[in-house]
Write a structure and sequence with these properties.
By secondary structure, the protein is mostly helical. It is 76% helix and 2% strand. The protein contains 17 helices and two strands. Helix 1 packs antiparallel against helix 6.
């Protein structure tokens, strides 16, 4: 039986939801709770968090480029997804064992702990990005069609929010009690278990097109000027992704710390849960709209929604207004990523799917995570808001991180306007892929 052009087989949806959700749950722990762990246990210096984020982004990008190109060459994604998730979980479980010793040589102990957590985070990012950002994202591109990618990316876009919600609801009490080893151990075990499950669930599409050149040539193909000239729309879209991603990374690494320490909201888990549920609804419903009105046309309106939310969050200081403005902030963020991500899939050459995941990581992770957190750290340091905890002076994130994020997000208008110079053109390879996907659907 052949599925309609806009449908996705049930087994594929199961992989999208399970593998996508647990991957984002693990990234939530790395992107947000690892920062809280470092802040609470190791160091309150915001530059340490910014360095941690930047180093892991570099490692993740390198891994995605290497493994994406490798999976293109072998023509399979399943082994990389399953094996990568198992190793990803094992390394995540070890975070809680990195803690400085307090004593006469406390400064040296803290420095060693900072170095150890950065190295471990980089190793974890290599496994996680190889499995999720390279292999899984390539599998999604090959298992979907232009007619349903907005819907699929709308669902994938909410996975980070649901991952946050699961962590907040089920595991946050462990962090409040300082049980970090158990916290990281549970997340690591679940991630590894899904890796085993993925071995039985994931089916390669059967139409992976290997690139015509060798591995090393394929690895660097995406940075060649000839590749940019051949696919200008793809690179303009990636630029837009880098702008939006950088905007979000100005505030996301410090978000929980801001709610806890600046707003003094003890019920921050309720705030975040409410925002994430509302934003998830916006993203899922918006994914259908994206498919109808056009993916690239939806980018600017989605970013505007996010900017409005950022400005609102900048102005409020209490729980209910924070929730009301937080929903468009996070919902617009998710819709922006869904619209850009689906557009990038449509513009991806079908014989370079894995390689493009490396380019996507440069735009969506490397540039944002190297630049964004340092902008946030500079804003926090410049505001010089502090408090004293057990005789230690600690810096606190201020509302200006949201204003700075909004100013960065405004720059997305430049690549969005540039898209008009490079209209979407028929992709014969994508049309053949769609025919194969639809014909293979049960």
């Amino acid at each position: 039986m052949t599925a309609s052009p806009t449908s996705l087989p049930g087994r594929s949806w199961l992989v999208v939801v399970i593998v996508g959700l647990v991957g984002q749950l693990a990234w939530t722990v790395e992107n947000m709770y690892l920062n809280v762990f470092v802040y609470d246990v190791i160091s309150t210096d915001p530059t340490v968090i910014a360095t941690l984020v930047a180093a892991s982004a570099i490692a993740a990008t390198a891994a995605t480029m290497l493994i994406g190109a490798a999976s293109d060459r072998v023509g399979r994604r399943r082994e990389f997804i399953a094996g990568g998730y198992v190793l990803w979980g094992l390394t995540t479980a070890t975070f809680g064992f990195v803690q400085p010793e307090h004593g006469a040589d406390a400064a040296r102990s803290v420095a060693l702990a900072v170095a150890a957590i950065i190295v471990l985070d980089c190793v974890m990012s290599i496994f996680g990005s190889g499995a999720n950002d390279a292999a899984f994202q390539a599998w999604v591109t090959e298992s979907t069609t232009p007619a349903n990618r907005g819907r699929v990316d709308g669902v994938l876009a909410i996975m980070p929010l649901i991952g946050m919600l699961v962590v907040f609801g089920a595991l946050d009490p462990l962090t409040q009690a300082g049980q970090w080893r158990l916290f990281f151990g549970i997340v690591g075990a679940v991630t590894s278990l899904v890796g085993v499950l993925a071995w039985f669930l994931v089916r390669d599409s059967g139409h992976v097109q290997s690139p015509p050149d060798g591995y090393l040539a394929s690895l660097v193909h995406g940075v060649r000027p000839s590749a940019v000239r051949s696919h200008p729309r793809l690179y303009v879209l990636l630029t837009a992704w880098a702008v939006v991603g950088t905007s979000t990374q100005v505030f996301i690494p410090y978000l929980i710390i801001y709610i806890q320490q600046y707003l003094k909201l003890e019920t921050y888990a309720i705030v975040l849960a409410s925002v994430l549920i509302g934003a998830s609804v916006v993203s899922v419903l918006g994914g259908r709209v994206i498919d109808r009105i056009g993916k690239s046309r939806a980018i600017l309106p989605a970013v505007i929604v996010m900017i409005v939310g950022l400005i609102g969050v900048f102005t409020v200081r209490s729980m209910l207004p924070l929730i009301l403005w937080g929903i468009p902030m996070m919902g617009g963020f998710m819709l922006s990523f869904a619209a850009i991500g689906a557009s990038v899939r449509d513009a991806t050459p079908t014989d370079r799917v894995g390689m493009v995941q490396g380019l996507r990581m440069v735009a969506a992770v490397l540039v944002p995570m190297v630049i964004g957190p340092f902008i946030g750290a500079a804003v926090i340091t410049g505001a010089n808001e502090t408090y004293v905890d057990l005789g230690v002076v600690k810096q606190v994130p201020t509302p200006w991180i949201f204003a700075a994020a909004a100013m960065v997000a405004v720059l997305v208008v430049i690549p969005v306007l540039a898209l008009r110079r490079f209209p979407e053109r028929p992709n014969l390879g994508a049309q053949r892929q769609q025919a194969v996907v639809e014909g293979a659907a049960p």
